[in-house]
């Protein structure tokens, strides 16, 4: 009697369980019977469970599987940043793929002698995001052992011991499709085991990269202009879409499950002025810009800090998992790698210039040389070396204690950033004035303000606006540091030389070379300045606001021309 009661009870519970599953699946796309709610359904077959399960003569796969194994060879996910090594799909993932790889007819069932006819002549899974194919390299990895050792090695994976809720590993401890999807329950959409809004599903396994980032907290939404940045989700803000703002778990366009193959397009989906306030897209299309469109797939997070194949992508300068503009420290450059002024790798950077030196330093090919200098130096890192006689104070305060032209708050003890000169030229307010940074400018090379280098050129506040940003124009034209500044760059009477600042001064820095002292950023443009009658070409500093030039320029032989020391300027022309 007891055995009979137990059997009846077991049968009753099994029936109730199947009814529960049936009740959950009946109104979803996984109901492939004639009563199905989705576009893919049978022409006459009324049984619902039969498309996956059969009570008799099932496949050896559990649970009572009614589909055949296609025997397909799959290309698993791989990445230079992934510690997991997934192989061929196993377990529940292999079962899911019996429909979702598109190789087996949907109606081809073990329990049927002939395939079930499907409406509309559909045989396999139609082309859509749910048809994964046999190339799984663009899908979230499955069928790998999610172990404590893996979580420790990765550093940003949650301990598998915590996966006791909706997200679970299979009985063998492997991550499978069913870790994220419940094929019988679509209450969360996309058959997910829990809501994927605000990164909740992803962060069950993936720890937040940093304490807080702007991408986590911003509630910016799309203004409806241009392409929808989130075409496959119901969420309407950046923080709600969370990981989906950049990544997609299936049919990704680029590596590391990025939405697009073009790395920059992932960022420009939002940074085009229609979601984020900054219109980086507009800045990148200016006359002078970082050439993000020249390479695709060249960037790799594991590449050496000094790469031989010089390239630039948004990810080379920004870490989207760490960026936070209002954070103390590096803000938009949080947790990125760079090169110190001494040439050593640093991770993360502690100063902006260290990031710039990744490409504008020892990397080959070197930075473009725009002026034919007396003392050439294509390595910008070496230009700014604090051991040079003179340099703009990027890596440390300058060496010249007497610079009367400096505009407050600048002093001879100040340091500056590369972006004080190389920046968006758009004045505030403007359509892209929020896109601060060296993304693009109408002044080459990505300069914030105009800086004319070609000689001759009439002096004006606008012609040398970049220099006059920090150096008082009245001081320069008043000859406070060089007794013939005005005569050289502007002129008086009929003798107007119209010499650009760039002809005499190297804006980065100068090392000493031979008799050339390299002080006061003097490094002549050889396309304008020539050797004098004795074949000499150099500048010699002889004291505060004093020096001698040995050269030939503007029709005058300097052999030498001296200035300062209370004696004005005198020239020997022999």
Number of strands: 12
How would you sum up the global shape? elongated
Largest sheet: 4 strands, antiparallel
Give the H and E element order. HHEHEHHHHHEHEEHHEEHHHHEEEEE
Please give the count of helices. Answer: 15
Q: Unreliable stretches, pLDDT < 50, 5 or more residues?
A: 6-22
Strand content: 5-15%
Write the topology of this structure:
Blueprint: H1 2-25, H2 91-100, E1 144-145, H3 148-154, E2 174-175, H4 177-180, H5 214-217, H6 238-241, H7 263-268, H8 280-284, E3 288-289, H9 314-317, E4 338-339, E5 345-346, H10 352-356, H11 380-383, E6 390-391, E7 440-441, H12 465-468, H13 473-477, H14 485-489, H15 501-504, E8 509-510, E9 538-543, E10 546-553, E11 556-563, E12 569-571
Antiparallel strand pairs: 1-2, 3-7, 4-5, 6-8, 9-10, 10-11, 11-12
What does this structure look like?
The protein is elongated. The N and C termini lie far apart (128 Å). The longest helix has 24 residues, at 2-25. By secondary structure, the chain is of the alpha+beta class. It has a domain at 1-146 and 176-193. Helix content is 17%, strand content 7%. It has helices spanning 2-25, 91-100, 148-154, 177-180, 214-217, 238-241, 263-268, 280-284, 314-317, 352-356, 380-383, 465-468, 473-477, 485-489, 501-504, and strands at 144-145, 174-175, 288-289, 338-339, 345-346, 390-391, 440-441, 509-510, 538-543, 546-553, 556-563, 569-571. Residues 6-22 have low confidence and may be disordered. It has a 4-stranded antiparallel sheet, with no helix packed on it. The chain has a two-stranded antiparallel ribbon with strand order 1-2.
């Amino acid at each position: 009697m007891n055995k009979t009661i137990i059997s009846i009870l077991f049968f009753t519970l099994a029936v109730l369980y199947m009814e529960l599953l049936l009740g959950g699946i009946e109104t979803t796309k996984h109901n492939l019977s004639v009563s199905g709610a989705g576009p893919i359904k049978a022409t006459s077959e009324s049984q619902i469970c039969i498309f996956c399960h059969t009570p008799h003569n099932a496949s050896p796969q559990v649970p009572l599987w009614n589909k055949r194994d296609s025997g397909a060879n799959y290309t698993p996910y791989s990445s230079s940043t992934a510690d997991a090594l997934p192989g061929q799909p196993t377990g529940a993932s292999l079962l899911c793929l019996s429909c979702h790889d598109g190789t087996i007819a949907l109606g081809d069932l073990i329990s049927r002698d002939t395939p079930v006819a499907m409406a509309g002549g559909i045989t396999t899974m139609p082309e859509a995001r749910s048809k994964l194919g046999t190339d799984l390299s663009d899908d979230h990895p499955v069928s790998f052992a999610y172990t404590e050792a893996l979580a420790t090695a990765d550093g940003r994976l949650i301990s598998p011991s915590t996966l006791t809720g909706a997200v679970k590993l299979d009985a063998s401890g492997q991550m499978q499709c069913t870790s994220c999807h419940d094929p019988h329950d679509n209450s969360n959409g996309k058959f997910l085991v829990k809501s994927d809004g605000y990164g909740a599903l992803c962060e069950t396994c993936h720890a937040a990269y940093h304490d807080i980032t702007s991408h986590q907290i911003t509630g910016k939404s799309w203004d409806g202009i241009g392409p929808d940045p989130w075409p496959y989700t119901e969420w309407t803000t950046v923080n709600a879409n969370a990981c989906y703002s950049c990544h997609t778990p299936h049919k990704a366009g680029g590596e590391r499950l990025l939405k697009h193959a073009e790395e920059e397009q992932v960022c420009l989906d939002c940074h085009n002025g229609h979601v984020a306030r900054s219109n980086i897209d507009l800045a990148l299309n200016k006359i002078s810009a970082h050439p993000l469109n020249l390479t695709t797939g060249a960037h790799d997070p594991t590449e050496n800090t000094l790469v031989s194949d010089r390239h630039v992508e948004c990810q080379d300068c920004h870490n989207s998992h760490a960026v936070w503009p209002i954070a103390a420290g590096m803000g938009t450059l949080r947790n990125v790698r760079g090169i110190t002024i001494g040439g050593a790798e640093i991770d993360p950077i502690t100063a902006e210039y260290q990031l710039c030196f990744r490409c504008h330093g020892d990397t080959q090919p070197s930075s473009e040389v725009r002026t034919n200098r007396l003392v050439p130096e294509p390595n910008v890192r070496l230009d700014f070396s604090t051991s040079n006689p003179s340099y703009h104070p990027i890596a440390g305060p300058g060496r010249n204690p007497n610079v009367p032209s400096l505009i407050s708050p600048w002093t001879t003890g100040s340091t500056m950033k590369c972006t004080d000169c190389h920046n968006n030229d758009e004045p505030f307010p403007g359509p892209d004035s929020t896109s601060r940074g060296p993304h693009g400018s109408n002044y080459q090379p990505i300069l914030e303000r105009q800086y004319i280098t070609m000689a001759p050129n009439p002096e004006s506040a606008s012609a040398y606006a970049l220099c006059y940003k920090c150096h008082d124009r009245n001081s320069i034209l008043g000859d406070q540091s060089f007794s013939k500044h005005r005569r050289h760059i502007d002129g008086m009477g009929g003798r107007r030389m119209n010499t650009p600042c760039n002809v005499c001064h190297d804006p980065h820095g100068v090392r000493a070379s031979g008799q050339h002292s390299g002080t006061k950023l003097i490094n002549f443009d050889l396309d304008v300045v020539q050797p004098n009658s004795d074949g000499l070409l150099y500048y010699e500093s002889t004291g505060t606001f004093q020096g001698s030039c040995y050269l030939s320029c503007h029709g005058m032989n300097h052999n030498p021309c001296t200035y300062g020391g209370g004696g004005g300027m005198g020239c020997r022309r022999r």
